[in-house]
Predict the structure of Guanylate cyclase domain-containing protein.
Amino acid sequence: MTIITVSLSAGAAILGASSYSLAEFQQRRAFLETRQSLQVQLVIEEQSAEQERLLLSVLPEHVAVKMRQDLGASFDTQFKKIYMSRHENVSILYADIVGFTAISSTYSASELVKILNELFARFDQLSER
């Protein structure tokens, strides 16, 4: 009778240890998968914020919002949608900067942006007269 009791006790202990190990393994795997999912979600959120920042640095906010709204919509036309608005009392200035290619090779990108910003600010001032 003691051999049966010892055998049953050993079997129960082995079964309990196996069950515990399996549960521990599954919990660890679930934790790692959750951690990986959260990391991916953070990367996606960061990339989305960067994409939004870049989009708004190039386009006016109302155009970017309209483009985002239309992003999921399907258009059954052969032409792409054009985002434009009508503006009254607007002048368009075309300026060819002579020697710009030569100038651009001697300045850094940030210095060029500064120079162009100052130039267009002067154009704006002159157009207000």
